[in-house]
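Late entry, evening session. Most of the bench is empty. Finally got around to the prediction I had been postponing all week. Sequence below, unchanged from the version circulated by S.P.
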Amino acid sequence: MKKFWCAAIILASVNQCLRAGGSEPNDPNNPNELLQVTCDKVVAVLQNGSLDKDTKTKMLDKILSPFLILN
């Protein structure tokens, strides 16, 4: 779970840096766009008050698992 939250924090931090750089919007090959969409999904799950903790964890795991490097 610690790796999960570290990944979420790193994604959010990198997203803020990339937003400052400005990029082509709506380009599916743009890594900035991928990061923006991913961060928006994470924030939406975290802000959803109707979900319980276990459901949020499962949803966030599904969103962030492609970005995690597991040993």
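Two things to note before I forget:
The radius of gyration is 13 Å.
The longest helix spans residues 2-21.
Will write this up properly tomorrow.
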